[in-house]
DNA sequence: ATAGGGTTAG
């Protein structure tokens, strides 16, 4: 028993070495009385070697032992487990015939720690089959894994086991449950268990789990509230509690409270803990207090990568991209470790453009970080946000393991680059791939639905969101308000708005724009007043919505006031968008001179929308000179757009210059520009039905055409007169009337009347502006058939009801 | 001999 090798002797501490101190007589006694004593000593040695990670030496001791008891086996097995050498642990486990609950727990804890879910649960079942009762250790291990991997369903099963087997007041087990529920976003369940457990100030783990739960649930306020309560109760915080509460402070930018926590840390003596320090740096940096962050950094003994990462994130968030890059370069210069959190932060500074994205990407490849999920997610996001969707997709496709964040980056990227259809497609692919959406991707896809006015799909996403059980967020609610408003469902937008506890400038602006688009400009202005009284400051986009509202409601004086207000009161310089609204406003109300004056005053370059507004005004008021100027500019800005040609030609016709009109049409033809055909569509039972003028391609064309005949007869009875000005064809009166009757929007409404229930509103979409005759017909139809018709054309919404339209015939 | 809580990324 003394022939250990020299390596072992050298590595052991002699004063703990039991054998040398044992009197000789003991050895003799041992050899006579059997191996009890020798086993005891060997076990002690085994334990020490296992615990210090010298597992190979422990194995040698174990091999040489003449007699091994349960303790020996369990010790060596747990030694392998703690080093993560599960294969060896399992081999020993299989070779040990009198396994106990401890043996099982040891091995299970190993699989749990290394995230081998299925193996852990398999052993958990087998253990019970072999007649061993899981202990608080077994349950604790399993719950820790559930918590780390978000296995809420498994945790609920374990919860059932806990109740049935009398572990309900076991501190370790219940703390594990609280932690799991809190981390898996079931915070109310965690609260119930927390309250039910015996009040114990010393159970720091439990209290900390609650703080972390609130913080990680995205509820920094509640975390701070709980921490206050905890403090008031005299429960002490430790090196685990402080980082958690500081994260909560960062998330809600609670700088002042963060400083108070810093005070507690200094008094507590945990100020030297690197987790606490890095959390402090993070809190200060995220709150924009860089001198505070630097003060903490300077007290730290070593360069800490986490703290530096936090500094970079802080710089990027406060728009100091140059400094972020400088910090990154310093990390290099100091030869610091760089980890998979460093690159995502640096890549964020590429989005604003101060850093060359390609060179960072190269560095990522060179340093071998491209296979890290965080890094490749950030690459996808960066390329998507900078508009390089091909690169974004290429990185995405190369990823071995895509998570909800990878998908979200792509969905958001396509949406932000106006590829809303692709964004919807990718969202569907994500669902097919079985990835569960989170709040961020829900907000993103709902915005895409708003832009596409995809009401039915948007409603499905909304109910999906409710069913997901995810907590609502400001951005989800904002997207819902925008989606319903943009889809013409003002009541739904309203009820979301009313239910919101927190609103920001985006919420109000969505509503202002939504009401304006739906022909309710006056309500838009009311919302603006309410917004200002609530203390929310309007921004650049709010004023676009506001001026848009004025122009669509013909509120010239209000428009003038707001236009002045935006620069004088709020210091927002008008952009081309604002000028376009103002010119539109003046143009529609016949104030062409003022429109022209404003155009000449512009201190930004007029864009296409400005010229379009002006051209439309010239068309209405027959101003050829200004119209020519507007059209000529549009020919350059949008060379393939037929609209300016058609408009200009119409202006020529209106002032009797027929050859001028013919010349423009010829020019248009010679350039190969064709007018976009009018197209209307309607969604019935999740299917989109599309119609173009005089279209007979629909399977129910015969029904639709006889329905139109019925419609025309009925509305003529109540006073409808076809307006031939909107007829395209050179035909006799009767031929023109027939052509008018089969415009795409009339085909769509006829189909809507046939295929939807009496009480349902009919929602029609049109790619161009609604024609004047169809607009008039829709009013009569809404009265004669007692139906609400909502028509979204390329410009705005028309809500037809009882013979009236929301636009007041002004559009 | 077996168990529980913490920082940085969208």
From TrEMBL:
Residue spans of the PPR repeats: 69-99, 100-134, 203-237, 304-338, 403-437, 504-538, 575-605
Any one GO molecular function term: zinc ion binding
Record keywords: Repeat
Gene3D superfamilies attached to this UniProt entry: Tetratricopeptide repeat domain
Domain DYW: 719-811
GO biological process, one term: RNA modification
PROSITE patterns documented for this protein: PPR
Family: Belongs to the PPR family. PCMP-H subfamily.
Annotated protein name in UniProt: DYW domain-containing protein
